[in-house]
Amino acid sequence: MNKILIIEDEKILAEMYKFKLEKEGFQVFNAIDVDAGVEIAKKEIPNLVILDMLLPKESGVNYLIKAKAIKSISSIPVLVLSNFDDVETKKKAFENGAKDYMIKSNHDPHEIVDRVKQLLS
Amino acid sequence: MDFYIISSFLNGIVAILFGWFIFSKNWKNVTNWTFFLMNISVAIWNLAYCVWFSRTDPVSALYWSKMLNLGATLIPIFYLHWSLSIINLVKEKKNILIFGYLFTLFCSILSFSDFYIKSVDQVGRFSFWPQAGPLYSLFLIFGYYFLTIYGMYQLFKAKKKASGEKSHQIDYVILGSLLGFGGGATNFPFMYGLNIVEPIGQPMVIFYIIIFALATLRYHLFEIKIILVEFFVGIMSVALAFLFLFSPTGMLKLVSGSVFFLFVLFGIYFIRIIHREIAGKEEAERISRLKTEFISIVSHQLRTPLAAIRGYADMIIKGDYGVVPDGLKSPINYIHDTSISMIKMVNNLLSISRLERGKIELKIQEENVLKLICDCIKDVRLAAKEKKLYLKYNKPKSEYPLIKMDAEKIKHALTNILNNAILYTPEGGITIKASKDKTFVTIEIKDTGVGIEKDELEKVFLSFSRGKGGRELYAQGTGLGLYVAKSFIEMHKGKIRCESRGKGKGTTFYIQIPIISQISLRQDFSLPTKKS
Fold it and tell me: Which of A10, A12, A87 is the closest to B363 by Cβ?
């Protein structure tokens, strides 16, 4: 079973994506900030991370930077799921190793699941 | 009285007043206080020059020539500091500034010694022109020429990268610097006994003051237009006060006194009016800035609950929470579709907020415009189908060249126009055509909708503007879509227009995208973090 880590502080969205992904057969873990995300990633070694950009304490970009420096989790693909749609944020995400970038409000959950499957295939 | 005495006296006074006005407006600003210090140095140079020139004995002339050279010694370092502050390079170039200040301090300490100015001699028609000591050459090389040329070099470099008002500011500063320091340089050959050029340093000072005053007035060099008005009123008041004090007869005193009184009165009144106008303008700008920031923050925050509404509705429709009772299917579909409409509106609001702040970013790549049109049609096909409207695309048979553009922005613009056509077409449908000539690819979107009355055609691209037909017939629509579309097309140096034969006769939109891109990129963004 593929493991997915969702780093998202908005509980209502985190629960929604978790429910949808679990229904599609994934094992899902939730984290609400960068540090918690790094800890769970180190412990569970997920197959993919879904990352929000606007998080408490520090930006989602910092997860990408921190994860890059930790050998055990540096190769885990990251799908950024954010409400920021500007080029600069996307650029920062891709420069720091994000594999894909989606705008939350522009996609239904099944489209996000499709993208997750695509990235894992 | 000699021309040199008058010009140096006037220049000294004007330099002090101009410097003081700038300083008093915002003494904490490094550009303002360095300008003030530079002007004080210019004033020392000029006023000491005035006294020196009027001396008749060599001892006194030597003393005042040393004093005027102290002023000249201080000018370059304050000029450099001021120039660097205009182009925001003070921190980056702090080492050169430290060197400049230490070197200037060294020269200033020794400026009254014979190492700096050894004597005064007859040169040309000047009886007591100061003669350079050995240290003075050092000042000329490392102080005068190096510091000023370095400052101008940095200004030239910054000018290449600058645009708009900043670029014009730098133009004026460079011109003023060339005239001021170029003029000043003519004073030096005499100091080495070389009578090769007329020393015009003092009279040239007035040009740098005029040029910086022009820059202040036209390009807000010190962010305050009012300075020049106050400066003018101040100078004129002083001149009129002198006229009053030195009027030889009682009648003249009465006339000049009345003129002085009235001038001061009207001057103060005039300055107050300008202050009020500026305050009003600043307040309007502040409110506009707050409005766009507010829209931006609110729009970002709105996206989260909208994503949840859309997402949960979609999952219910897809049966993730079990079979949906028949009676609930339509309402849930409405929730889902309405949330998507709101998301589109929020996206448009965000685009407008960025447009108004000049923070729209373009991601330029070579794109296939015909494929892009197909993608847009796919996006709106469902909406057209639900209204039972046809959607025809007369795709050209031959392929078009790839065009450099931000595909997302052009897609956003096209989709807005297509959505608009669907929204305002109750029956019939929409036909899309593409054609090209040497310069443009033209996309034509023709609907059989409510049409636009002639007097409203010009207004459709304004923000929050909706046609009368649309207002009468439909509750949806904010009047943002076409404004955003026009802005995005024009950012690509393209054109957009619409035609309609009137109410009930449909509308045709024409979008023209240049085949050879002439886009300039503009980006400005900082990623915030959420406060916990």
Answer: A87
The reply to whether CATH 1.10.287.40 applies to domain A3-120 is no
Assess whether pLDDT exceeds 70 at residue B38. Answer: yes
3-state secondary structure of B365: strand
| Residues of A at the B interface, defined by Cβ within 8 angstroms | 9-10, 12-13, 16-17, 19-20, 23, 33, 53-59, 61, 83-89, 92, 103-106, 108-110
Cα distance from B529 to chain A (closest Cα, Å)?
Answer: 5
Q: Determine contact, residues A76/A119, Cβ cutoff 8 Å.
A: no
Q: Is B358 on the interface with A (CB under 8 A)?
A: no
Most A CBs within 10 Å, among B297, B299, B525, B531, to test the A interface: B525
pLDDT tens digits, B307-319: 999 999 999 999 9
Interface predicted TM-score (ipTM): 0.92
- B488-507 pLDDT per residue, tens: 898 888 999 999 888 888 99
- The nearest CA of chain B is from the CA of A37 a distance in Å of 16
Task: Return the domain boundaries, chain A.
Answer: 3-120
CATH of B366-514, one of 3.40.50.2000, 2.30.30.100, 3.30.565.10, 2.40.50.40: 3.30.565.10
Span B107-166, pLDDT tens digits:
999 989 989 999 999 888 788 899 999 899 999 999 899 999 999 999 999 888 776 667
Pairing status of strand B126-132 against strand A27-31 = unpaired
B316 touches A at CB < 8 Å = no
Q: What is the mean pLDDT of residues B446-465?
A: 80
What is the domain partition of chain B in residue ranges?
3-223, 288-357, 366-514
Class of domain B3-223: mainly alpha
Measured between CA atoms, how close is A87 to chain B, in angstroms? 6
Q: Output the pLDDT for position B311.
A: 95
- CB half-sphere exposure, B224, CA atoms < 13 A: 20
The token pair that represents B157 in the structure block: 């470099």
Contacts of B306 in chain A (CB under 8 A): 105
- Quickly list DSSP for B264-292: HHHHHHHHHHHHHHHHHHHHHHHHHHHHH
